[in-house]
Model the fold of this input.
Amino acid sequence: MCGIVGYVGSQDSLGVLLGGLKRQEYRGYDSAGVAVLSNEGELVMAKKAGKLQMLMDNLTAHPLASGHTGIGHTRWATHGAPIDVNAHPHLADDGRLALIHNGIVENFYEIKAELTARGHEFVSETDTEVAAVLLADNYAETGDLRTAFARTVNRLEGAFTLLAMHANEPHLIVAARHNSPLVIGFGDGENFLGSDVAAFVEFTHRAAAVGQNQIVAITPDSVSVTTFAGEPVVPEEFDIEWDASASEKGGWPSFMAKEISENPDAVANTIRGRIHDGMVVVPEIDAFGPDFLSGVSRIILLACGTASYAGLVGSYAIEKWAGIPVDVQLSHEFRYRDPVITPSTLVISISQSGETMDTLMAVRYASERGAKTISICNTQGATIPRESDAVVYTHAGPEVAVASTKAFVAQITALYLIGLHIARVRDTVPEALLQHSAQELSDLPAKLAEVLSVGDEIRTLAKWMSDSQAVLFLGRNVGFPIALEGALKLKELAYIHAEGFAAGELKHGPIALIDHGQPVFVIVPSPRNSAEMHSKVISNIQEIRARGARVIAIAEAGDAAVLPFADEVIRIPLAGPLFEPILAVVPLQIFAMELADAKGLDVDQPRNLAKSVTVE
Ligand code: M6R
Done:
């Protein structure tokens, strides 16, 4: 939520800012704005509610004076409606100071009352303007932006990334991070700030994540980092693994289409370097030695949304292979149930962005109570991996479309790698099974490439179903989380009411929803892997068919038993029981995208959603 970019250097800052905001559009926003310190020493600003393009059109009609220092922002509304006046930047000190903010200032009301009593006036409804005016107030007393900024951030509570600049100090941007992401990009004679590295990857691959409660000051030739208390900090640099082209569409009609096509690579890259001599070894966990895992008696998987469904799939595999009880908990529910956590609890968080506030808070909670923590994350340098004992990065590449696709399959892959790693270290399953499972993982990219060829078939289906009012999804065992994910994708992308059910639950209530013509997707388990589960799901299909449902079965190649009962059959390649769901989800991703497209919707940026949910 909210994208932030800051630039100081010799380039025309407006181009850098707009490019940085464009590449961070996926984070989700409803207004955008920029402020630039002009070469004449004036602070100039433009901001607009709506898409970034509206701001850009406005800038074409009313160009800003050029300058080499600037800040830019995309806002996802929290305090105050998404209208021009509430968009960032917010100005203070008679228009000589500009400030942008991601997060929520929780004590803004009290500060606003104090500032109002001292004669300050406000033009917006936002908590951010309060921070801008407080900074101006502190600046009036200190006459030094760094000092005033440090004093300001120490007064604020809640979650915030702030960037600010003042016309009196034209080559300086100050920034702070508290419970909200901020990264630095190191250039040559120029420096950058961003919510994530997409903000500046076009210009530099050298980056560092700003730590919790740290302040950064950038000038063209220097970057200094301190704690909120003023202690100097040496930022830990890392190289950005991908280039700007990886976050561009590359000829695809949407980021979502591109990212679905990258499913095979996402799995291949996540496995890379983690299978040795036919056995899974995850070096990032291995580095902690055998003691890290030996005492573990319970595993909790923490995540939200799609990542939690990846967790559900992973829970079946980890429990089976590692022989350790595994729970999956929604991060935002976790803390409030007073969970039992001991030093023998291993918490594995799953987050594409690594910035989901609910998950971050849940990980902190578990960690403070002595749990060991592993983060599965797709974003280098993000907060959750930084605050976890170990990190297993998924190497799915940047996921720009708001709805998650390739990151989901990469997350399941990472969970499987961890499950097989633990099983090997704790010697819980025969070596032959470990080797066979590692081979199944290695075979997945080719099978996923095969599944992608069902695209045309699904497109026709999606067009035919574009008027549907509701779509149901059924699955059993590892097929159940896939049903949940299929339903979530359809809700997010096509705004259609969709529900996923465990097939066995049908007769306990949901079957009442079945009426003539009701479309139901059914994920059919392979009869080779489990004849019993297969025949139970076939019975479920018959039960809904008898009540008028229109059945679309996702079944493995050669499964003839579904043919008499399904209106449509989408085939997936043969795979082991735990590996089928990774294949079965892809047709559902394509279906949701095609249906949204048939309805003329924006598949990359669905309404109301943010890619990175950085507030609780
Ligand atoms: O970045 P995270 O993986 O932590 O995000 C978790 C969820 O917000 C995310 O998966 C969300 O459900 C997506 N919109 C799914 O498409």
User: Anything to note?
Assistant: The longest helix spans residues 406-426. Residues 255-429 form a domain with the Rossmann fold fold (CATH 3.40.50.10490).
